[in-house]
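User: Last request for today: this protein with zinc ion, please.
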Amino acid sequence: MAFPLLKEFGARAAVFLVAQGVDRDNFWRDAHAEPSVRMLTGSQIREMQQEGIAFGCHGMTHRNLLRCNDAELRYEVADSKRRLEDRLGRSVDTFAYPFGAGAFDPRIRGAVVQAGYRLAFAIRQGKAHPSQDPFALHRVLIRGDDTRLDFALNVHRGKARL
Ligand SMILES: [Zn+2]
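Assistant: Here's the final one, the structure of the complex with zinc ion:
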């Protein structure tokens, strides 16, 4: 996990939590294709908060929001925000769409705006810029096996390696 390094170098970071994933694993995975991975625990989150790590919301159960009806969408976007805010003791202002690119549309964007978020992140390759829709900010994918050179190039180009 990257936290000890972030701490050592005083780097800023934001972590997006699946509200029901705290203290659990990636229960939303395809169990035939993906291994179980432990998610952060409540006490790890508290420790990271004290070190200045920011937390955003990545849905209640990591569903594809395009497949949710309006009530399910509110549960994934708004109820999850409140649940995390209760847990973190502070406001949660940012949202990252599960499944990123193509997994949001105007209805989903509207639900995120209505829930009271200030920013939301898609997975569209590129650097975030003030001219972009604040509810569809771009990101650059960083992989776990990227070298330091890959990382530097990704950030510089605004584009992940192939
Ligand atoms: Zn995800």
